[in-house]
Amino acid sequence: MRGVGSASSNRHPELLEGLDPEQRAAACAPRGPVCVLAGAGTGKTRTITHRIAYLVRSGHVSAGQVLAVTFTSRAAGELRTRLRGLGVEAAQARTFHAAALRQLRYFWPRVVGERQWDLIDGNKLRLVGQAANRLGLSTEVEVLRDLTSEIEWAKASLVGPDDYPAVVARLKRDTPEPAERIAELYRGYEQTKNEAQLLDFDDLLLHTTAALEEHRAVADEFRERYRCFVVDEYQDVTPAQQRLLDAWLGGRDDLTVVGDANQTIYSFGGASPRPLLEFTRRFPEATVVRLERDYRSTPQVVSLANRVIGAARGRPAGSRLELVGQRSEGPEPRFAEYDDEPAEASAVAARIRGLLDDGIAASEVAVLYRVNAQSEAYEQALSEAGVPYLVRGGERFFQRQEIRQAIAALRTAAADEPRGELVALCRRVLARVGLTEQPPAGGAARERWDALLALVEVAEELASTVEGASLGRLVTELEQRAAAQHPPTVEGVTLASLHAAKGLEWDAVFLVGLADGTVPIQRADGDDEAVEEERRLFYVGVTRAREHLSLSWALSRHPDGRRNRRRSRFLYGLVPEDHPAARVAKSGQQTKFANSCRICARPLISTMEVKLGRCTKCPADVDEHLLGRLKEWRTERARELNVPAFVVFTDSTLVAIAEQRPTDSKALVGISGIGASKLQQFGDDVLAVVRDEASG
To answer: Which residues form the UvrD-like helicase C-terminal domain (predicted)?
Structure first.
């Protein structure tokens, strides 16, 4: 192994200005194998772009002979932009798949000699569905997604249909169908795809590799063209990507890899940190540089991140990076426990509203969760708080196919005006589209189930606030909520899964839903490696925050449900001992709130009680006439603003106003759901209605 200081840094000193000693050592390391172990926020992109520029300026390689590959188009675009800023215009920076597609199109006439096959464009599920139908397998969308993911894993892992059952048995891999059946499906899908002369994204890697391995003239031409390779996020390389990289290299060693084994979170897709961790075994003379100075996060966030990953089990030597915060001091991370998910979402929305009022841009705030189905509660809470948002890395809640199907089924059922209790009616209808009593196994199937259950929770909320609520009223509520969502292009708070947040960063990050069974995900239980990957995923979430970090969880899924959840096991040892949330909640144990009933002074437990300012056992003293006046005012304001009525104020908020009859701004904001934004926009009008009714 070569030392990090073996290259002279006297040439082109302007390229090394602003780099710390470790970054400089990586940038001007000798040509040849270089491994940069780069922790989160340590400036890896800056380092590798300066390395490329240094190699070009020093004459080791021409810019056109450099190929840098990464895993997302966004990251590739950032590399190109930074390289242009350093005067390196001709270097190529692409994703693995984009680079392979470009090469395959160029070499196709020589390798195949006929019309180039088209790339599958959005109809992959249809092809898998055709193969599944022939075998009598389910063609439900969520089942097809799981089956497609399994085929993609196999191809990324270089496992063909014939070998698939044996490999699955050896790895004890959990599969959505028996391995032999998936092998048949895999074989049928490949046959259907090839007969249609189509390529999927995995084929781009496999066919390009084959062209280089099997056609000497093609390999010679490519290797004459590209002589220097840089691979970003090397901890996420799959066997198929590694084989393509080997074909590119052709036995050469002018390779720089950058990665962090602590951020390996895509093993479900075939990724493995093994090539990164075994790099020096393959290249004994490699230069190894460790980047541990964290320029992204405050020391408080860095300290928490180190404790999160420090608790990991079986960490190999190459992953033991200890981040050192370089920024000035910031606020301590916040921890919070809530009775239920709606209460958690409302509190997060209120906190975000406060940050925005303090001058933080909405685009610098993110809410991160484990599964996409968790987004609905935050979409609703942010809408009610008047906070714009966008959903990243997943379909918007009301655009998901299962939600559209469910609302269509509810609309059809409502036309018959069935009688009965709303929640029971809702469950009965949703059972027809896949809502079972117990959650199913499997990633996509579980996400669909969670999304359908979220509709039941809307029904529960509606039944608790609107007397005699019907299925028709529920459908209207759902349609209004769908219409009120901000378009994805709006500049707003980011809602994203932890996986979708990889590679991004924000000033303020809210890690939500941190309950055992969600983080780590329930299906990881019993599999130590899977649990450790969940820990790394949690670590990735923590390291997305620059300054403000909030971590929260709920003891129940919905109001008045059993509070029998536990905070994530990953939080043990992180929550300060004197913090109210440091205890582990026990089944049936209720969280104590500072809020008390304004009538009997008992603690308020549920979200609705907090909003109304009284416990549900105490008699309501709502002013029905005032409530009617408030609803009339809300209708007029909603029409003026061209938004659904609930965006102005929800029914439950109006009920709370009609009960408590606030006479000044302080009393008005004391009602849950009315923050600074609502007060500024509607406060004077509401108080005028209340005063007018009192004087009349």
So the answer is: 299-547
Q: What confidence score (pLDDT) does residue 586 get?
A: 37
What tokens were used for 172?
A: 């004890």
Crossing angle for the helix pair 299-310 and 528-542, to the nearest 10 degrees = 180
Annotated binding site for ATP: 38-45
Closest to 375 measured CA to CA, from 353, 361, 390, 360: 390
pLDDT at residue 542, rounded to an integer: 97
In this prediction, the residues of the chain whose per-residue pLDDT falls under 70 are: 1-13, 122, 317-319, 393-396, 441-444, 446-447, 481, 483-491, 581-596, 598, 601-612, 616-617, 643-644, 646, 672-673, 675-677, 696
- State both tokens at 98: 């984009």
- Strands 34-38 and 287-291, by their bridges, are parallel
pLDDT the model gives residue 486: 34
Cα–Cα distance measured from residue 341 to residue 373, given in angstroms and rounded to the nearest whole number = 12
Torsion angle, CA of 107/111/115/117, rounded to 10 degrees?
A: -80
The token pair at 284 is 């004994």
User: What's the pLDDT score for residue 317?
Assistant: 67
Q: Which residues of 550-564 are buried (b: 16+ CB within 10 A; e: fewer)?
A: bbbbbbbbbbbbebe
Q: Which amino acid is at 250?
A: G
The three-class DSSP label of residue 67 is strand
Contact assessment for residue 488 and residue 396, using Cβ atoms and an 8 Å cutoff = yes
Q: Is the peptide bond before 576 cis (omega within 30 degrees of 0)?
A: no
Name which of 529, 343, 579, 557 is nearest 520 in CA terms. Answer: 529
Q: Which residues are annotated as a binding site?
A: 38-45
pLDDT at 304: 96
Radius of gyration of the chain (CA): 28
Nearest residue to 50 (alpha-carbon basis) of 39, 36, 40, 33: 36
